[in-house]
Amino acid sequence: MPDDALLSLQTDHLKELQARYESALAEHGYDSLLIASGAAPYRYGDDQAWHFQGYGPFLHWTGLAGREHCWLWIRAGHKPVLWLFEPVDFWHANSPLAEEPWQQFIEVRSSASPEAPLLDDPESLAVIGDPALISNIPGEKNPEALLRDLDETRVCKTPYEIECLAQANRLALAGHAAARDAFLAGESEFGINLAYQQATGQREAEAPYHSIIGLNEHAGTLHYQYYDTQPPGQTRSLLIDAGVRFRGYCSDITRTTAGPEESHFAALIHGLDRLQVRLCDMVAPGVDYIDIHRKAHQGLAALLSATGLVTGLDDEGIVEKGITRVFFPHGIGHFLGVQVHDVAGKPTPPPDDAPFLRLTRRLEPGMVVTIEPGLYFIPSLLDPLLEGELGQYLNRELIGRLRGCGGIRIEDNVVVTDAGSRNLTRGL
Known about the structure:
- By secondary structure, the protein is of the alpha+beta class.
- The chain has 2 domains: 150 residues, Creatine Amidinohydrolase, Chain A, domain 1 (3-Layer(aba) Sandwich); 265 residues, Creatinase/methionine aminopeptidase superfamily (Creatine Amidinohydrolase).
- 36% of the residues lie in helices and 15% in strands.
- The protein is built from 13 helices and 16 strands.
- A 6-stranded mixed sheet has the order 4-3-2-1-5-6. Strands 7-8-11 form a 3-stranded antiparallel sheet. The chain has a 3-stranded antiparallel sheet with strand order 12-15-16, covered by helices on one side.
- Helix 8 packs antiparallel against helix 9.
- The longest helix has 26 residues.
- It is globular.
- The model has no long low-confidence stretch (mean pLDDT 96).
């Protein structure tokens, strides 16, 4: 999408946010709202701070990730006011804002102080943000009922948000292609990470989350957090779960690649990919997201049976006996937005058969979700199954050969449209 069109959508987005926020404030009896962008806390016993990306509601309005000690004031019938922290400081540079149309909608002021602004009329004021930074400010701090309603304003994305998410997908896909090429060229996990960053042009600290890059058995650790600097003796598999932040919005994409000698594992990847596409096609208004999760288990049971990993049970029995939950222990996905696991996904607790599911809502147009089935060989889950009564149904020899590949996850970012869905990852 051309920049001018995107910037025009941003102005519409801000008008919509103003209306949504004014409605929420009126509902709870507040005249205005002060939003703190936040700041990175210092590490204990150190003079260095953690990496910082910003508070969700602040990003929802501004997209300015990484801007500390900023404040945004929202009032009914008035322009929002944004105070940008720009200290007179010879230690650090102040990043200038590009001239864009949104600055005609929001009044931007510069502040050399990290302290909250003194407001003309703090009566009936709500203040939201990190409690450690707002404790001494007049007004009601983080009122729970208001926060719940503000979270709801992020559930259905505006056209601007969707296009930002689409661009975050485009950038991340270039990184995934580079990562795959680096893997096939024999790079280490560290080298693959460098290839991903080079292709996306985004530093690790700016990415929406720490990229998961696991070779071989490391792919079976769901949130594997290390990077080996040396390649393994035999490269059997790569699982990379990595995204990009664009104007505050996150992509969250996972791909799995088999090594040249792993034909059986490659067949499993192909089968899971076909299942994942069918699950993405289920995304539509009115669909219960939990049903997509359960359909994933049914499809996984069919895949386990077809590939000979499980025998002697029909697909329904494989699911009912909990075997699919050993190979696929997490939920099918979550909301996506200015946070990777975006808010308001669980108005009701997840069901007993999906305890880790992060989204339990019926889908509506404008929601953006991830669809990410997996098939893993996790020793801590597999070994008790093999040693128990259900072990008779598992192909021990085949599982033993595939353990060293770790596992598979395939993840796309999907928008619910009025008529169905738009896959931001595959259908750009």
